Amino acid sequence: MPQRITVVDAFTDTPFAGNSAAVCILPAVRDVRWLQAVAREMNHAETAFLLREGDGWRLRWFTPAVEVDLCGHATLASAHVLWEEGHLARSDVVRFQTRSGLLTAVTRDGWIMLDFPATPPVAADTPAGLVAALGAPVVAVARTPFDWLVELENEAAVRALDPDLPALARLGGRGVIVTSQASSDGYDFVSRFFAPAVGVPEDPVTGSAHCALGPLWGARLGRHELVGCQASSRGGIVRVTLQGARVQLSGQAVTTLRGELLA
User: Which residue of 100, 172, 226, 232 has the lowest C-beta tally within 10 Å?
Assistant: First the structure.
């Protein structure tokens, strides 16, 4: 029986911008090899698989290469699909059971708000090869539970970055977040995210990275509410609200494709 699959651009209100994710609502449990094969076939940064479980949904995320522990844009895309396709009323809270525990989503005024765990970065020694791989002066280096986090001197340096991706893949961890305070109007900070080790050379907009970027720039700027711009070629906006051990990530989403898997 054909399996429906939907492609959503997340953290944007414009088609073909933000970060695209495939969303697949399963009627029953599928083998992990099939899930990974579908993610590889779709070839988006993440493909999300949903299965109804109790009063919520079991949610798993796969890059083209591996299953991951936390993903923001595919969670936002999943909530968007559940509401848009009538699986839940717009007033309903979406409850996702994931590798990172319970995550929730609500919608207000056209924005989807995700409740995620905060992952504050911790200062770390600069790993061998990092500066050379980035090809830019580094101001500070930290670690999150998933990634390296690197601060550069300004927004122009972040936007101009052209890193050695194979060298970044050898650093260990999921990927490398690069950030600076924003100089453009309308944003508090800018960032980019590279994860070649898990099959994502550059992620267009990375919700989970903002679980670390929010606490970093919130402490630096003395703010609890911030706006981040991920300065990839597609670009996207993430609103971040700090709530102690949690962060609220807000973004918009637009469906761009609906299809069927025949295998």
Answer: 172
